[in-house]
Amino acid sequence: MTSLTRLPDLDVLDLLVSVAELGSLGAAAREHGVSQPAASMRISALERRLRLRLLDRGPTGSALTGSGRAVVGHARLVLEAARSFNVEVAALHAAEAPRLRVAASKTIADHRIPQWLSALRDSYPDLAVALEVDNTKHVEAMVREAEADLGFVEGPHPPAGLGSKVLGSDDLVVVVAPQHAWARRRKPVTLRELATTPLLWREPGSGTRDTVWEILSAECQPARPAAELGSAVAISAAARAGVAPAVLSNLIATPDLVSGALRVVRVADSVSLSRKFRAIWRRATPPTGAAATLVEHAGRIESRRMVPMPPP
Asked: Hey, what domains does the chain have and what are their CATH numbers?
């Protein structure tokens, strides 16, 4: 293979184009982080390979020859093609990179997903995870419509038509502001009292709402909500302000309970306030690979939480 049939090095073509754009070999050398003598040697080597004089070198500097300007025009096309090549290769790598689309209810996303994903990263360090956060009904819809590979929801029952696995449970607590009458009562609140009291509720579609509604409906028709709010944060704020009692996940209520901004209301022993955390998926495509590993890690972590601590 002769020197004319071998492709020039892309770096030296880039250097030559910089000479044309910056107006001097010295400026091009500085742009490329090399000394001017080194840059001159590279251009000289290119001239020998092409058997063309590309620069007129004189006491006052270097200027492109007619052949040099022509080579620069072709070099720009070659460099643009090389950049396009690199972009396309990068896109291929991105397309082939493992990716997992996860949808989760708000409570799980805030209080469980970070730890689950951290465990998953140990097994799949290069995995890209896209997380969508919404209420339980919307998460179920995303899984059914194949907008998510895997979902995590809370509620009393498995979603109809989807595969699922119980990962753990979440305790719910009745909370009120310190000035509320229930904060001072000694007698536990009964299920009927809770059902007939206007409460702060999450929006329809929330797993918390579905769970509490089912528990209260077993006793009687629940009272009309004192307010319907779109997030647990908003409910906590309204409860702190004394608007009405609320039933919240213990995960969400704990900071306010610790600070004293909210008080737990004891409920009768016959009242069981809890809900299940579940992984859900389309039955036709049960989790495999990273998705199956995420479910496995989540289940293992939640099972450790459920183990009772030994007495001191």
From this structure: 10-95 (1.10.10.10), 99-306 (3.40.190.290)
